[in-house]
């Protein structure tokens, strides 16, 4: 039975160039993208007005060696 290893990476929407570079880098290293999820976190700080921040989390897998 194949055993897998996983890695997850998060990005902000303003990091699109870095995001694409990382996708290609991990793909070239044998990692397969298996999930991608947008996330949103709302701050509760009194100093930033409760601004929301968004991000993207991606999960890759590859067979263990």
UniProtKB/TrEMBL annotation:
Which Pfam families is this protein grouped with?
A: DUF4177
State the superkingdom.
Answer: Bacteria
Q: What is this protein called?
A: DUF4177 domain-containing protein
Q: Which InterPro entries match?
A: YjzH-like
